[in-house]
């Protein structure tokens, strides 16, 4: 078991390093850089179509370090992260990237955690019911709802709920805080206010994942219910409820556990469009804006943190799978 965990931990560190290199390189693949966008903005806003000399452009590029080779920029960036915890400077927001990351990631994590709890709380019992009561009226109803959840985009559902809340309830479901708590320091009242607003975006973002996991749980549990060990346990006089939870459900939950790896970055990166529609203070809109304006250190920092969350989620799911299914420990 410990050897298995040690191997997984080493592979996690190597994966994060490789992803950091690939993400840093991909961000610089589009033509130009932030200096190019800055020069274009200066030319567009200047009167008379003024031009900027190439010497001045090179001075700006040298000041930001863009005149150096990509690998030099990468090693300087990753070295500062490891030694000082600095992610660079945001050219667009004029702030340290680490400040923006630490401001946005907790909100994203709270939203992702609430969405994951909702997904599990809804998908697990419904998937079990649909498998045990196969082809019943409830199974058909939940299957229909599941297909609707998979087919309807989350941002469209957010727009519909915004329209309904504003038109019929005279309330705007925007943001994670009330107006009086938006810029207030953290206290218990602000935390409770966030909880009051959190369930709406968590429901919207988690709906698609809930629908998919319902179908996954149903299909896996149906496979387990038809295996010989279930008939053997039933022939020994084990009650249906105890038999169901002790053997088939336990084995069918493996896909649920494995979803932790992709659920964390999926929810944190957010449904970016949903975050923009609902004006959520999460990492999605900032990352989207940074990629658009080639704010490389902010974009690379967020992508690095999302990749770390991905491998941590996968690592946690591997540990839980090893605890749930002893066969995995031998691999």
Secondary structure topology:
Elements: H1 2-27, H2 34-45, H3 54-64, H4 70-84, E1 89-90, E2 95-96, H5 97-132, H6 137-151, H7 154-168, H8 188-225, H9 228-235, H10 240-246, H11 248-252, H12 254-258, H13 260-268, H14 272-277, H15 283-292, H16 296-324
Describe what you observe in this structure.
By secondary structure, this protein is mostly helical. It has one domain (99-330): MetI-like (MetI-like fold, Orthogonal Bundle). Helix content is 75%, strand content 1%. It has helices at 2-27, 34-45, 54-64, 70-84, 97-132, 137-151, 154-168, 188-225, 228-235, 240-246, 248-252, 254-258, 260-268, 272-277, 283-292, 296-324, and strands at 89-90, 95-96. Strands 1-2 form a two-stranded antiparallel ribbon. A hairpin with a 4-residue loop joins strand 1 (89-90) and strand 2. Helix 5 (97-132) packs across helix 13 (260-268) and helix 6 packs across helix 8 (188-225). The radius of gyration is 25 Å and the shape is globular.
Report the span from N to C terminus: 10 Å
Instruction: Calculate the mean pLDDT score and round it.
Output: 78
Shape: globular
Query: Helix amount, in percent?
Result: over 70%
Strand order of the largest sheet: 1-2
Biggest sheet character:
2 strands, antiparallel
Can I get a quick summary?
This protein has 331 residues and is mainly alpha-helical.
Please name the defining characteristics of this protein.
16 helices; 2 strands; two-stranded antiparallel sheet; 1% strand; mainly alpha; single chain
